[in-house]
Write a structure and sequence with these properties.
The complex is a heterodimer of chains A (308) and B (323). Chain A has 308 residues and is α/β, with parallel strands linked by helices. Chain A has ten helices and nine strands. Chain A is globular. The chains are: A alpha/beta (308), B alpha/beta (323).
Chain lengths: 308, 323
């Protein structure tokens, strides 16, 4: 069941200023007028960030300096801009535009038009959709990097994300460089129906193009990666890294619990568990990712046969 | 004798009439010598009309129910009706054998093929054996193994899709459900022999696409193919699984919708009253369609087949007039 399950369990927060989760949380229950007043106060609203594990208040600049990893070790969810900055040498990269796709082909309505949901997600994240592409060097190795942002409708894989993935793979092939994908999604985007399901096959095809060109494809699984995303490009890397503690699975934990009517064991579907079960190569803290990625990619490229 | 004993909600009037026919036949037997033959004939004609009418205008939720109809032909029936010399091949050679996906070698209209598909089961025992058609990693890994064999020996692959989705369980996750699905989809797409997928019932999300990365994707008239079950979508969108009807409509899951979106290539018509009202006919109509599609792929080389598949899937969503 590839599904965009919601993971707004308060564990992961998105650090981008002005980002407020659309549903849930006490703020959502307050009348809109009050909410507006609250959000427009003059003090920098996110100067302190509450640690989702310990409840401790963390000074925002400290958290930024720690790459949004709390003192307790939680790797908080971050968007594409920060990912690119943390991944590429000196934080420098070239943004590659993502292709435009038909908007709302199904004219999907679930109480609110899908177009409206897209608009508010765009406003909240300042991004066009869930995927962004950057090109730069990782410890000296040129690479195309694809980042999936959970803050954009749960990172869900729809036509836009699918086309972005294909575009990124093509860019990598054209430039003769590896592809790195940071995954984060609840799954496929329901609002695009079977068109989103097709992205599982389409992204898989794009990976074949990389293989044909003998270019490495590395996946970094981040919190959370589930559903159709895990069941396609997230599990087809030459190498799978995962940030500590990330939820990674096919079915969401809630769906499993409902099916088997049992509570899941602690640590189930977390990065460390996936390493133990043989699905992930290595749990790698955020601060070490550039080094590890750079080493892996340069070695894989070193073994690359020269094209005739 | 009523042909169909399991009635869907919208078939109530049909059920009533068929009960009446049964009653009259019984009476006629006891009274002896076809006393009510004319009445029975008239009622039968009326039933056929009613069926035709009802099935001509099914809404997406009704189609969902038809697609899941317990008497709808299943993989086992298709093998029985279309494949001779069937030899089931079992096991993923790694962990076990998952009977939610059944597959093997056989002859389709005289021609050796690899055939595989989801089997939901047809009574309590077989439903449990086949886990209601919800495959675990071993099922997808068996599919990969069968496709490897098809590639090695140059055999076409016929797949039949009928699943609510991959099984969500602890063991399945533990053994890499997501990876197994991804590899199976990948294997379909890299196959150097012709592959035809037919959605015969429910095409449920990743569990379906794992067997449907084919050169041609066919769908039965009243089958559905969806990113998530209507119930699942409803419970996420509205936290109310009971609104599945609305979700079914919103997600555009019917054959008619899917062919417009170019997600499927061909709709296979069903007998009036759905495939379950005349399974033998339904199965042969599917066979004819598959044979026809397979013929069109015969002249293609392995590379051309792969290229055709890539083109087919890359084109989805890029067509004009979608937005």
């Amino acid at each position: 069941m590839a599904m965009a399950e919601k993971f707004d369990d308060g564990k992961g927060q998105h650090p981008k200023a002005g980002d407020r989760r659309e549903r849930g949380g006490w703020l959502a229950k307050i009348a809109p007028g009050v909410r507006k007043a609250l959000s427009k106060r003059d003090t920098p609203e996110n100067l302190w960030v509450k640690c989702p594990d310990t409840g401790e208040m963390i000074y925002r600049p400290d958290l930024e300096a720690a790459l949004w990893v709390t003192p307790a070790g939680r790797h908080m969810r971050i968007g594409s801009e920060l990912r690119f900055r943390y991944t590429f040498d000196d934080g420098k990269y070239e943004a590659i535009p993502t292709p435009a796709v038909p908007e709302d082909p199904l004219e999907f309505f679930d109480g609110r038009p899908y177009r409206e949901r897209l608009q508010s997600a765009r406003k909240a994240t300042h991004a066009q959709d869930a995927m962004a592409i950057g090109f730069g060097k990782i410890k000296g190795v040129p690479a195309v990097v694809l980042v999936q942002d959970f803050a954009f409708m749960g990172g869900s894989l729809g036509m836009a994300a699918g086309e972005a993935f294909i575009k990124a793979a093509q860019e990598a092939v054209a430039r003769g460089v590896p592809l790195v994908c940071y995954t984060a999604a609840g799954g496929a985007r329901m609002q695009e129906g079977a068109l989103s399901l097709m992205q599982m096959a389409r992204t898989t095809l794009a990976i074949q193009d990389l293989k044909k060109a003998q270019l490495p494809y590395a996946v970094v699984l981040t919190d959370p990666t589930t559903g159709g995303v895990t069941a396609s490009y997230a599990m087809l890397g030459d190498v799978h890294l995962a940030e500590p503690g990330a939820l990674i699975g096919f079915a969401g934990p809630r769906v499993i619990e409902q099916t088997i009517r049992e509570t899941l064991p602690p640590g189930f579907q977390r990065s460390e568990y996936l390493v133990e079960k043989g699905m992930v190569d290595r749990v790698t803290p955020r601060s070490e990712l550039p080094e590890v990625l750079g080493a892996i990619l340069s070695m894989l490229l070193g073994g690359k046969r020269r094209a005739a | 004798m009523a042909a169909v004993r399991h009635y869907l909600e919208f078939e109530r009037p049909i059920a009533d009439l068929e009960a009446k026919i049964d009653e009259l036949s019984n009476l006629s037997e006891t009274a002896g010598g076809g006393s009510f033959e004319a009445e029975i004939e008239a009622l039968r004609a009326r039933v056929l009309d009613l069926r035709r009418e009802a099935y001509a205008k099914l809404d997406p939720w009704q189609k969902t129910q038809v697609a899941r109809h317990p008497e709808r032909p299943h993989f086992t029936d298709y093998v029985g009706g279309l494949i001779t010399d069937f030899v089931e091949l079992r096991g993923d050679r790694t962990f076990g054998d998952d009977q939610a996906i059944v597959g093997g070698l056989g002859r389709f209209r005289g021609r050796a093929v690899v055939v595989m598909g989801h089997e939901k089961g047809w009574d309590t025992t077989t439903r449990l054996k086949h886990n209601f058609g919800m495959a675990r990693p071993e099922g997808y890994r068996k599919a990969v193994r069968l496709m490897d064999m098809a590639e090695e020996f140059g055999l076409p692959v016929l797949s039949f899709v009928d699943t609510a989705g991959a099984y969500p369980g602890i063991g399945a996750e533990e053994r890499g459900q997501a990876e197994a699905i991804a590899r199976s989809t990948e294997r379909c797409l890299t196959l150097g022999t012709p592959m035809i997928a037919t959605v015969t019932g429910e095409g449920g999300s990743g569990g379906a696409i794992a067997l449907a990365g084919a050169n041609r994707v066919l769908i039965l008239e009243h089958s559905i193919y969806s990113v998530i079950s209507p119930e699942g979508a409803a419970s996420i969108l509205w936290r109310d699984g009971a609104r599945a009807k609305d979700a079914a409509a919103a997600m555009k899951i019917t054959a008619e919708d899917l062919i417009k979106l170019k997600i499927v290539d061909r709709i296979v018509p069903e007998p009036p009253g759905g495939a379950h009202s005349d399974p033998d006919a339904a199965i042969q109509i599917v066979g004819d369609a598959v044979e026809d599609e397979l013929g069109k792929l015969d002249s293609l080389s392995p590379d051309q087949l792969r290229a055709q598949r890539a083109e087919r899937f890359y084109a989805i969503g890029r067509a004009e007039g979608l937005s």
